[in-house]
Amino acid sequence: MKKISRFLSLFVVISVAILATSCSSKLKPLSQNNFNVTPTPLETVGNQIPVTISGTFPEKWFNKNAIVTITPVLKYGNNQEIVGTPYSFQGDNISGNRVTISQSRGGNFTMNSTFPFEDAMRSSELYLRFDGRIKNKRSALPDLKVADGVIATSALASVTNTTPSVAPDGFQRIIQEAQEANIMFLIEQANLRQSELNKSDLAAWKKRVEEAFNDPKQNVNVEVSAYASPDGGLSLNERLAAQREKNTSNYLESELKRRNIDTEVFAHYTAEDWEGFRQLVESSNLQDKQLILRVLEMYPDSETREREIKNISYVFEDLAETILPQLRRSRIIANIEIIGKSDEEIMTAWKNNPKELSVDELLYASTLTDEESVKEAVYQYVTANFTNDYRGWNNIGTMYFKQGDYAKAEQAFNRAAQVNPNAPEVNMNKALLAILKNDLSTANELLGRSAGAASLDEAMGLLNLLQGNYNQSVSAYGNNKTNNAALAQLLVSDYNKAKQTLESVEKPDATTAYLLAVIASRTNNFNDVVSNLRTAIGRDRTMVAQALNDLEFAKYRTNNEFMSLLK
What we know:
This protein is an alpha+beta fold. The chain contains 23 helices and 16 strands. Strands 4, 5, 6, 7, 9, 10 and 11 form a seven-stranded mixed β-sheet that branches. The chain has a four-stranded mixed β-sheet with strand order 13-16-14-15. Strands 1-3-8 form a three-stranded antiparallel β-sheet, with no helix packed on it. Strand 14, helix 4 and strand 15 (265-270) form a beta-alpha-beta unit. The two termini are 81 Å apart.
């Protein structure tokens, strides 16, 4: 009996030891209470789903010989899943670069992960997947659900809601032109010399004035500015400049009358042309010209200036030879207005004989019609007849872009870039194509070369929106009245401003109404939720499925009126 008793005692001791060893060789499943997910539910930032998971390993849970890897897994759609960033931890007895967790005390940890958003992820679940090993022996742990769904309102940002950049036409209805000539005078003289009156530039001036006057599409007036150089006394220069102006004006009036040109002559004179003096000195190669310019700055009084400059005797000699003679003159200017074709004339020429039109007039013609087919025909004509003007290629590319034919748009923009790689409109439009491909780094680089492009504010607003920089996006959009601009305002919780923007959208679509429904939901206005969703669904039936899966409306899923709307 004693032998049996000793055997039984030994058996119990061994069994307890085996049981203890067996228990210590396994890891127990953790519960949701050990984890906290931020945000809950998940929410897109731009086109990404960032998540922060805070966790706790309880005391006595982590085996000293264990290695545990935890991987966030987003499960969605038809058995689809995408894994996030794995984090690895190790027990007290393990050496390595993992985070060490004490068996006796347990430990806290934080995991950050980001998932690229897909539309099917609106209805999704976040799990944690465990790979637990003790001395290379796997310890089976089930996936643990820690969060439901994704609020994907920021994903409503759309490249197609952004206006591509149209290159300007450069057309001017009235072109200002100035034809100039100079009549030079000898020192202290005001008489008109025949050698000056016979100069070719004066003859060309008269011819141009006559052409402008006789052309009904041009207007012309004449201006005379007479000067004296600032090297004499003020009273002498006053008389000289006045006489030069009078003699020049009388001569021009006589010449204009002889040619039957009835136009006004505006005349004035400047006694001492210090400004002309400064400009000529500044552009000269005179020795010590900086010294002369400093004198002009230091002494505003004319007599003091003249005295100080003459005191620099070696410089004054050069001035007397090279600068001062150029200031003894009458400057005559023909101010000509060239009146371009009227809108009607341009469109008539486009229909009947487009060869009459310049490239700028053709591009302007495209702005005079709302017919897309006409616009496209104009751009096609420009690309065929002005192949070295990037604007035709760029602008027809914007049409393809708006039509959703992105392959043809890309071909057109690439052709425009071959002609002018630095054109801001081309770079901005190529940035929009990069955004379509989710290549935000290339888009950012291209937008950096797009200064001055039309609609650049929209493109910058969109890029910031997609990068999750919502405040910068709001700033970039400014007063734009688009869905994207309103979305940026919504995402910074400026619901009143977002609502005002949406109500001012020129051509509201299904997304416009849907965003108004989101604002109504966030501000607890059920009636507006229903009315705006009804409008959105009326414009696009796919909004039914989107609203059913959208956690923005989760609180209404038990409401019969809401659910009947989505049937």
